[in-house]
Amino acid sequence: MAHAHAHGSAAAANRGRLVAVLFVSLAILIVEVIGGIAAASLALLADAGHMLTDVAGVGMALLAIWFARRPASNGRTYGYLRFEIIAAVTNAFLLFGVAALILFEAWRRLSEPPEVGSGLMLAVALVGLGANAASMFLLRNAQRESLNLRGAYLEVMGDFLGSGAVIIAAIVIAVTGWAIADALASALIALLILPRTFSLLREATDVLLEATPKGVEMDHVRQHILDAPGVEDCHDLHAWTITSGMNVVSAHVTLAEGADPAATLDALCACLSDDFDIEHSTFQLETVDRRRFEERAHR
User: Fold this and answer.
1) Is residue 226 included in any domain, yes or no?
2) Each residue of 168-219: pLDDT tens digit?
3) Same domain for 223 and 201
4) Beta-bridge mates of residue 240
5) Which domain, by its residues, includes 269?
6) Threshold 0.85, pTM exceeds
7) DSSP characters for 22-87?
8) Do 228 and 122 reside in the same domain of the chain?
9) Ranges of H-type helices in 115-146
10) Quick one: which of 8, 17, 6 has its CA closest to 61?
């Protein structure tokens, strides 16, 4: 059996950006809680609640990166790399809980809308909008490489859109005195959270179920393996994801008569690395006789 691999986490490569986003999110959270209480604005408090999940989510992402850097052991041969995906799932459930809480409070306020300080509400929302824009800028490229970072990015994007909704509500209240606009903006913030959270949870669940990585066509992988010099056949082919940015392939490869195993293995590893960006592959090289033995054993 032969291996070709290179370990690394996409999230770990962007740890500094996550730290910066964490501090920005903490600052916005404090400002929005104080401003929401002072202005009696549910929309600001809703955005602060979502910001709290940002802080928790980014904190979990950083914790996951720290765990992922711990060395592998006999008990955990891949180390703690999968912890990043668990953090993404936990983050998704936090978001669902926050959305439900906001929707409930918004519904309650529709019948009894309190007096809202629109001026303070607008000022705090503008600060939040600018800070969230800065956080989105920090994560805009990194979120394409990691589910963990994508979760953080989606939360920041939700806050950015939420701040926009608060700004609109503050302007409506200031111009018309229609206090219900605050509750409606809160409900909109909650609804903006849900679709992206479903997407995050679905992708993270696929990783935990060891589904075929997104963008990897198994028929193409199989054909590339069969086209490698010295390959007679390929079976028991599997592809899955350990953590974001680390796809894995394993396969049993039947060698043609007279093939050079070392040359075939080099060709296989180069093929998967160059054409499919798969750096960790495990191939069990077999002779034709061995394949016949396996077929008899599985009958």
Assistant:
1) yes
2) 988 998 898 888 888 888 888 788 778 878 887 888 899 889 898 887 889 9
3) no
4) 248
5) 218-297
6) no
7) HHHHHHHHHHHHHHHHHHT-HHHHHHHHHHHHHHHHHHHHHHHHHHHTSPP-SS-TTTTTTHHHHH
8) no
9) 118-139
10) 17
